[in-house]
Design a protein that fits this description.
It is built from ten helices and twelve strands. With 320 residues, the protein is α/β, with parallel strands linked by helices. Helix 8 crosses helix 9. Strands 5-4-3-2-1-10-11-12 form an eight-stranded mixed β-sheet, sandwiched between helices. The termini are far apart. The protein folds into two domains: 87 residues, Alpha-Beta Plaits; 172 residues, HAD superfamily/HAD-like (Rossmann fold). The structure holds ligand L263DTV3. Ligand L263DTV3 binds next to strand 7 and strand 9. It catalyses: alpha,alpha-trehalose 6-phosphate + H2O = alpha,alpha-trehalose + phosphate. Removes the phosphate from trehalose 6-phosphate to produce free trehalose. Trehalose accumulation in plant may improve abiotic stress tolerance.
Length: 320
C-alpha cells in the first residue's frame, strides 16, 4: 500500500503496523476493550486451525496452490533483519507441502536472500515484492530460471538510492538500509522512537530527486520501490497464469502473510472469488484475508495439517 502525507501520520502508522503483543486476560480479570475487539475480529477472520475441516471440505476436488510470505510468516520477526532464519522444522513442512501442491514464496526481500534462507528447490520465489520471479526449470527442478522481472530498468536507480540513503542515515543509531535488488528497505526497529520522524524525513526526502520511486510501509520499515503497477497481488496473478490457471478452474489458491504488502494479494483473491487469504497476526488488523493465524508456529501447524490431510486423501501413510 502506498503512503503519502505528513511525517507524523507516517510515523504513527509505522507504530500501528507492528503493535506490541496483546496479553490475553485470565478468567479472574475483567473483560477489557482489547478482548472485545479481538473477539469481534475473530468472528470476521476465524482461526484457520479451528476452521481447518471446513476449509478442507471446500478444498475437496480442487487443486491447492500455496503462496507464502517470508518474514513474520515463515520466520519470526527479529530485531536484526539479517538473522531472520527459518527453523529446520518450518523448512521441512514447506518442503513437504511443495511435494503435493505448487508452492511459491512471495517476499519483500531480494529473491537471492529469501532463497539463501529457505534453501529449497522445486518451489517458486518472487522477491522484491514480486518484481523478481524465479521458478524451477522444466529440465531440472533443482535449477531456477527467471520468469519475470518487470522493473529491470530500475536497477541502477535502486543501487544509487541505497548509497544515498546509507549516507543520509549514517548519523541515526540503529538505522539500516537493506538492498532488496529491485527495491530497498529502511529499518526503524532498532532506532529510538524519538528519532523516527527524522529518519522518516530522510527517506521521504529522496522522493524529490527520484519521483519514479514510491514510498510504502511495512512492519517498522519504510520502503522505496519503482512506481510501476506491480505488487504481491500482481505476482500472484502472474504465477497463477503461468501455471495455466484461469478464474473458472477448480483451483484453490491459499495465501498466508502478515504484512500490509500482503494485503494486495489477499485483495486479488477476494476479488477473484477464488481461494482465500490467511493473515498472521496476534492483534486485530484491517484485512482482506478471510482467516487468521497468530504466529509462525501456527503457520507451521496449519501447513503440517494440510500435508497430513493430503496424504490421507491419497491413502498414503502419514509420518505421525
Ligand atoms: O514480504 P516479507 O517476506 O514479509 O518481507 C517484508 C520485509 O521483511 C523484513 O523486515 C521485517 O522482518 C525483519 C526481520 O524479522 C524485521 O526486523 C523488520 O522490522 C520487518 O519489517 C525484511 O528485512 C524487509 O526487507 C522486507 O521488505
Amino acid at each position: 500500500m502506498e503512503v503519502a502525507g505528513k511525517i507524523e501520520t507516517l510515523v504513527d502508522s509505522l507504530r500501528d503496523l507492528s503493535p506490541t503483543r496483546v496479553r490475553s486476560s485470565s478468567f479472574d480479570e475483567p473483560v477489557s476493550e482489547n478482548d472485545v475487539q479481538r473477539c469481534s475480529w475473530m468472528t470476521l477472520h476465524p482461526s484457520a486451525l479451528d476452521k481447518f475441516d471446513k476449509i478442507m471440505s471446500d478444498a475437496e476436488d480442487k487443486q491447492i496452490i500455496m503462496f507464502l510470505d517470508y518474514d513474520g510468516t515463515l520466520s519470526p520477526i527479529t530485531e536484526d533483519h539479517d538473522n531472520a532464519y527459518i527453523t529446520n522444522e518450518m523448512r521441512e513442512v514447506v518442503k513437504e507441502v511443495a511435494l503435493y501442491f505448487k508452492t511459491a514464496i512471495i517476499s519483500g526481500r531480494s529473491t537471492n536472500k529469501v532463497q539463501s534462507f529457505v534453501k529449497l528447490t522445486g518451489i517458486y520465489y518472487a522477491g522484491s515484492h514480486g518484481m523478481d520471479i524465479k521458478g524451477p526449470t522444466k529440465i531440472d527442478q533443482s535449477d531456477q530460471e527467471v520468469m519475470f522481472q518487470p522493473a529491470i530498468d530500475y536497477l541502477p536507480m535502486i543501487d544509487e538510492v541505497v548509497g544515498i540513503l546509507k549516507e543520509k542515515t549514517r548519523s541515526i543509531p540503529g538505522a539500516t538500509v537493506e538492498h532488496n535488488k529491485f527495491c530497498l528497505t529502511v529499518h526503524f526497529r532498532r532506532v529510538n522512537e524519538k528519532r523516527w520522524p527524522a529518519l522518516a524525513e530522510q527517506v521521504k526526502s529522496v522522493l524529490t530527486d527520484y519521483p519514479k520511486l514510491r514510498l510504502t510501509e511495512g512492519r517498522k520499515v519504510l520502503e522505496l520501490r519503482p512506481s510501476i503497477k506491480w505488487d504481491k497481488g500482481k505476482a500472484l496473478e502472474f504465477l497463477l497464469h503461468s501455471f495455466g490457471i484461469t478464474e473458472s478452474d477448480d483451483v484453490l489458491p491459499v495465501y498466508i502473510g502478515d504484512d500490509r504488502t500482503d494485503e494486495d494479494a489477499f485483495k486479488v483473491l477476494r476479488e477473484r472469488g477464488q481461494g482465500f487469504g490467511i493473515i498472521v497476526s496476534e492483534t486485530p488488523k484491517e484485512t482482506n484475508a478471510s482467516y487468521s493465524l497468530q504466529d509462525p508456529s501456527q503457520v507451521r501447524e496449519f501447513i503440517k495439517r494440510l500435508v497430513k490431510w493430503k496424504k490421507q486423501t491419497l491413502g498414503e501413510q502419514s509420518d505421525e
